[in-house]
Structures are given as C-alpha cells and as structure tokens.
Amino acid sequence: GMQVRQNCPNQDVVDLLSELKDLHAAKAGPDEHWRVLTYNRAISVIRAYPKRMQSMNEILSLRGIGQKTGQKISEILATGRLQRIKYETTDEVLVSRIFQGIYGVGRTISLRWYAAGCRSLDDLRTEKYRSLLSDVQRIGLEYYGDINSRMPREEAKALFDLIKPIALSIDPNLFVEIMGSYRRGKADCGDIDIMITRCPDDGTTHAGVLGKLLKKLHEADIVTEDLALPESTYDLEAIYRGLCQLPQKGSRRRRIDFLTIPWNSRGAALLYYTGDDIFNRAMRLKANRMGYSLNQRGLWEGVVRDPSNRTKKLNTGSIKASETEEEIFKILNVPYQEPYERVR
Ligand code: DCP
Ligand code: MG
Ligand code: MN
User: What are phi and psi of 225, to 5 degrees?
Assistant: First the structure.
C-alpha cells in the first residue's frame, strides 16, 4: 500500500521469507529467478496484510500466495522457523555472498570465482586469483570494509557541505541537492546521492559541470577513486559513481553518486532518487495501473510496450508531469508524502 507501514503483524514471516529469497537470489540456475519473483510478490502481499495470519485457508486466500509458499508460511507461524533456510545455506552461497560485497561483483562472477576454487577475500588477494579482478573490483576489494558499512548522517552532511560550495563555485546558479536515504531523514546512509541541475532560462545549462566538479574534487582529495564514469560528462543527464572521504586523517572511504538531470525532469528525478526503492516500485505500479509510465525522467502517458518484451517501447509516449514531485503525486491520486514518510 502507499501508507506508512509501521508494525507489520506478520513481520517474522516477512523476515524469514526474505532470508530465503536472498539465498535463492545468490544462486545460479534456471528456476532461481522465478523463485525470487514469487517470494517478492508474497512478501509484499504479507507486508500489506493488516492482521496476524491464522489458518492455511486464510493464507491461501491472499492473492499471489500459492501452495508451496503457503506451507512455508504455515511452518513459520507454527514453529517460528523455516527449515528450508538451513538447507539452502550452502558453502557456495555463503562464499558467493562475501564476494558480492565487492563493488562490481555480481552473482555470475562470484559463482565463477567459487568454481575456480576461490573461497575468501584473502584468496582473492593472492597472486593466483588477483588477475581475475578488474581495476574497479580491486578498488572494491581494497575498501571492502568501508564500502560495506554505512556512514552516520552527520558524515554525509559534512561531505555534502564540502562539496556543494565547490559545485556552486563553478556556477552559482546550479541546483545541488542531496537525495536518497539522507533526504528521507535516515540516521545512517549507505552512500551520498547528489543531484545537480540548472534552470536554463538564462541560456546556460549545467552541461560540462560534472567534469569540472570531479576534477576539483579529485584535486581536493575529496573524491578519491572513480568507479563508474558516465559516457560523457557533458550530457545534461549523467550518472557518476565513486568513492570519497573527509579530509580528516583516518576518515573512511564513502560511496558517492552524482546524478545530473535536465532541469525539466527535476521533479521526477527528485521523486526517483529519494526513494526508497520499495516506495518507487509502488508508485510505478500505481502509474501503470492508471495507464501511465513513471521513471526518473517523468510521468508519461501513451507509452506502448512490446507485449513480448515489456522493456522495449514501441512508442515513447508524451510527458504528463515531471517538474515537481507534487504534481506527480496528484495525478497518481496519492496524497503527498514527505521524503521521511517514503519508507518501507
Ligand atoms: N533506486 C531505485 N531502484 C534501484 C536503485 C535506486 O528506485 N534499484 C532509487 C531509490 C533510492 C535512490 O534511487 O532511494 C538512491 O539509491 P541508493 O542505492 O543510494 O539507495 P538509498 O540512498 O535509498 O539507500 P542507501 O542509504 O543504502 O544509499
Ligand atoms: Mg544512497
Ligand atoms: Mn546511491
């Protein structure tokens, strides 16, 4: 649902099904993808269910929950545990999960390394395996601990307070905003998400700003490593991913993302990059049900998708709203929610 979920009466079920889902997500194999989708569907249905589930009939009456998942839920309700989790927790999954904590490593690569005999991060640091890693993965391995820990909100603020004036020194008319978990008011952040745009009404855009900013931030030793550069830092829409740090000695590396977007899509971009991802999924679903399509560029109408490949657009449609978050909420008939309310 679109409302704030505080107490879920079936939280234990949600937690254990999520744990099982994560185990399947770490595996390869033709069925795993479908299992993950099935569990995802079940989890969101259970999350939205307002009372404690009691009987098998009640469980199976919920849309999107089949026999097999129903049995697992009933096991959790009866015993507080789920045996299947233990069975799915193989050495391969455990090791593969550790590898997937390396920036730039996904399931396929982690399973390949496991198959090659590699069992630990220390193994990866040995000469025998080190050549398997790309440059970015080596950075991910070097700062494994930093990248996998969250920073206090205050540290995100301190970094942003350093970066914003440097951006404004390039062009005082830039719109520079911090997004993601920080904008939602979270006490800790996995990374810093910074959005940059500029009103082009005076004939100037933010084209080229990202490149200049990154150069300055590298010189100031605030941005320390690049992880993913955009194709062109001159495009109005670009994504940069990297690592940064506070200048104080002993500061940890932190993940940072810069997102530049055209001025007229700022509302849709604010909405998308504020998240959270579950909230975004619910908003997209709502849009789709009303015949719209929602992405980081706007709320679209008249989008025609290829029925055999939903990701392929036969018609890009036309923009319905994109300049403010409020108008997107309004058109979707969702009461406006403050960023701190947009949480799972
Ligand atoms: N986002 C999304 N779907 C994704 C990834 C991101 O909708 N698969 C959107 C919602 C996120 C926002 O982008 O809130 C920023 O992405 P982050 O991965 O930085 O996530 P958060 O900032 O929300 O959390 P964290 O504190 O872990 O960075
Ligand atoms: Mg973030
Ligand atoms: Mn991010």
Answer: -135, 145
